[in-house]
Amino acid sequence: MRRKLPALLAALIFQLPAHAADLRLQVLDTSGAAVPGAVVRLSCQDRPAARVSLRTTEDGIAESACGLPAEVRVVAAGFEPVSRNIRSAESGTVVLRLVPALVHTTIDVVVRDAADAPITGSALEIDRSGARTVFDAVERLVPGAFITRRGMMGYGIATNGTGGVSIRGIGEQPNTGVLVLIDGRPDFQGLMGHPLPDFYSLSDAESVSVTQGPASVLFGSNAMAGAIEIKPTRPAEGIHTRLRSSFGSYLTGQHQLTHGGRSARAFYNLTAGVSHTGGDRPSSAFRSQDVSTALGREFSRAWRASLQGRYGFFHVEDPGPVQAPLNNAYARVGRGGFSLNLDDTYDRTTGYIRLYGGYGRHFITDGFRSVDQMNGGRLQQTIAVAPGLLVDVGGDVNRYGGRARNVLARLDYGRHELTDGGAFTRAQWTATGKLKLTGGFRYHQHSLYGGIAVPEFGGSFQLTGRYSLAASVARGFRNPTIRELYLFPAPNPALRPESVWNYQATIQARPSANLQAWSTVYYASTSDQIVTTGRFPSLRLSNAGASLNRGLDANLKWRLTRRLKLTSGYAYLRSTNLAPLVPRQKLTCALEWQAGRAFIDLGATKVGRRFADAAHTAQLSPYSVASLRLSLPVRSRYAVFVFLDNLLNRRYQALPGYPMPGINATAGFTWSF
User: CA 250 to CA 608: how far, in whole Å?
Assistant: First the structure.
């Protein structure tokens, strides 16, 4: 019996799961040099509630007792963020290579769970802001961006429609100057040329990147003022399901279900969302439903393929301005899209191919009916040509259009289609350990206008380990939309593309590990802006607009204590031809406090005066709004929250004649299983 006992104990011991090995990471750049001071965030899969934040040493090393598998995100100044799921570390050290970032003023906005702990670094949290949509989060968290709203929920379309986004005073109304991308796919209405913000819910948004300043070299038309990139949700290792539901004032609710799984070489993800409100005014109800799915497989260490699809439908009512209220005015819209992706990752090169499409149907009570579509493809490859020299090469092509009519006015606008696309290249050269130079060029071809050349140049200099300077010059452009060329209000087939030259300089400072600040001054000269001249019925669209926009963006992130963090942003704009509804000044701030197990988030936004019309004959008063959110994790997978918006019960208007609701409340829960 004594002989059998050791063998029995050994058998029991070897059947027990082995303790997860410690994780050792080394962060390098494309030339193989170490990246010190990079922020490494770990989510340990063996302990889902455990989240670790580290900084790399002078050798680029970060070590943790976090077991494998683990979700890793690395953020370092001057480099593109990298996220990876690490399943094994056969060589003992996992090497992560960072790709240098070209000079752009970009803010990463990361969707976080209500039960997640606060994070450090450059990420801003959507969930803590109380935002209901992607555009809502951008408006609350990016000081240089402003988005019009008209009620509790639902931006709407057509006359009195809102959701027009401007970045540094450029964007148009409706928005055709800021490009929205979903998983690398440009998303806009084929006839009107603008995105529909009511489709950008948070059901399938893992992170959002906002680029302030022209992004036309990379993305072409419509990225004249910048770009908003929405990255879909991707599951972690294993199978996960999350249910989030909230209900509040004016019968307002949002309900989201996410389910996904990831194995060693494949993943899938399914999401569904429902949003609704009875509205704070008569005839201001809104409801929407959206679903999305994603499938992906890794064929080798270098090649991965995935398919992403989504569809949504919304019904939005327009109550009209208070001086001329409307009854039973509404719009119903259904839209869908897909992208087929092939990605490659080698030691010295990485890239992708995207084939995508989008379509939509619009039904408006004024008699307007339309169907539209957009199909295209894009490829991009990043190559480390030599130590310190990184080159991007790529191209894209899009064909978009549709058919429209007005059944009440008995007008048939016909069917129209246009094609555009281009080839681009960008390069970044690390001239010295402190100096980086960048350059880019796109040649864009349009079926109506021919070719246009779009350059950009820039550079950055590391003054010390804590301070750096960057400067850039870039051109942006926007082609006229099919609506402006052939539909209404006064179509003009002779319109030319709009253009902007943007000059900016940025200083970044990190005087301590807990304090980070950066500020950008810019000068943007726009020309050939499309404006409506004359009076009804003698209206005309022409390239008669121009402006000089000068301004400042400033941001501050300060961790006061381990449990208290302050973020703040300020934007100042001075323009020779300020667009209507665009503020001259905007201030945002948020205070995050971890009070025991609870998280308290107090946010505030102050918006300056805006012109109420294009003729600058009336102004909208400035306003200040505050919000409070309380999140309480009940268990490791369950949390409840309460959100109070317009905490001071201010009366204000973002759109003339549409008073915003007073103080309102929402309560809900998040359940992960």
Answer: 28
| CATH 2.60.40.1120, the chain: domain bounds | 12-99
Where the chain has pLDDT below 50, the residues are 1-21, 48-49, 102-106, 110-124
Which pLDDT value is given to residue 531? 87
Joined tokens for residue 553: 């963006």
Phi, psi of 444 (to 5 degrees): -110, 135
CA distance 214 to 198: 24
Q: What is the residue type of 76?
A: A
Hey, CA dihedral for 146, 564, 123, 464, is it positive or negative? Answer: positive
Please report the pLDDT score of residue 85 as a whole number. 75
Buried b (16+ CB within 10 A) or exposed e, 417-450: bbebbbebebbbbbeeeeebebbbbbebebeebe
pLDDT value at position 91?
Answer: 58
Tell me what pLDDT residue 264 has: 80
Handedness of CA 110, 114, 115, 119 (dihedral sign): positive
Query: Considering only CA atoms, which of 356, 352, 339 is closest in space to residue 380?
Result: 352
pLDDT for res 622: 95
Asked if residues 62 and 89 have their Cβ atoms less than 8 Å apart, the reply is no
Rounded to two decimals, the pTM is 0.84
Q: Which of 251, 111, 149, 39 is nearest to 652 (CA)?
A: 149
Superfamily for the 12-99 domain: Carboxypeptidase-like, regulatory domain (2.60.40.1120)
Residue length, the chain? 673
Query: Residue 67: what pLDDT?
Result: 67
* Topology of the domain comprising 124-258+265-319+327-672: Maltoporin; Chain A (2.40.170)
> What pLDDT, on a 0 to 100 scale, did the predictor assign at position 45?
58
Distance CA 289, CA 272 (A): 7
For CATH 2.40.170.20, the residue range(s) in the chain are 124-258+265-319+327-672
Which candidate, 259, 347, 340, places its Cα nearest to that of 304? Answer: 340
Please tell me the predicted confidence (pLDDT) of residue 14.
36
- Would you state the pLDDT for residue 414? 93
